[in-house]
């Protein structure tokens, strides 16, 4: 679902944005969407240090692993055992 965003700009600022958008052959709305996407990538919602700490914490744990075919076969055997009388 799309949401509308209203932003109030003074006239000189709006003229400059129109000029930039026109020079890039796009509407002001599309130019603003693209600039906001870039800004979101440059300023992530979660601190990268916090993400790294989470990954490091998870890496300290030991989880069972196997080749995918082996894991799927073990899962299937578990399902079959649960339905046997």
Salient structural properties:
85 residues, mainly alpha, 4 helices, 66% helix
Mean pLDDT: 90
Beta fraction: under 5%
Number of domains: 1
Number of E strands: 0
Largest sheet: none
Q: Pairing-aware structural class of the strands and helices?
A: mainly alpha
What gap, in angstroms, lies between the N and C termini? Answer: 49 Å
Order of helices and strands: HHHH
In angstroms, what is the radius of gyration?
A: 26 Å
What does this structure look like?
It is a single chain. The longest helix is centred in the C-terminal third of the chain and has 16 residues, at 68-83. This protein has one domain. The protein is 66% helix and 0% strand. The radius of gyration is 26 Å and the shape is elongated. It contains four helices and no strands. The model has no long low-confidence stretch (mean pLDDT 90). It starts with 10 loop residues before the first helix and ends with a helix. With 85 residues, the chain is mainly α.
Provide a concise account of the structure shown.
By secondary structure, the chain is mainly alpha-helical. The protein is built from four helices and no strands.
């Amino acid at each position: 679902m799309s949401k509308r965003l209203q932003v109030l700009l003074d006239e000189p600022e709006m003229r400059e944005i129109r000029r930039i958008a026109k020079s890039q052959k796009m509407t002001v709305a599309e130019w603003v969407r693209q600039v906001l996407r870039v800004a979101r990538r440059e300023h992530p919602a979660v601190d990268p240090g916090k993400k790294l700490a989470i990954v490091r914490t998870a890496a300290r744990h030991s989880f069972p692993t196997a080749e995918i075919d082996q894991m799927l076969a073990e899962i299937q055997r578990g399902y079959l055992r649960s339905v046997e009388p």
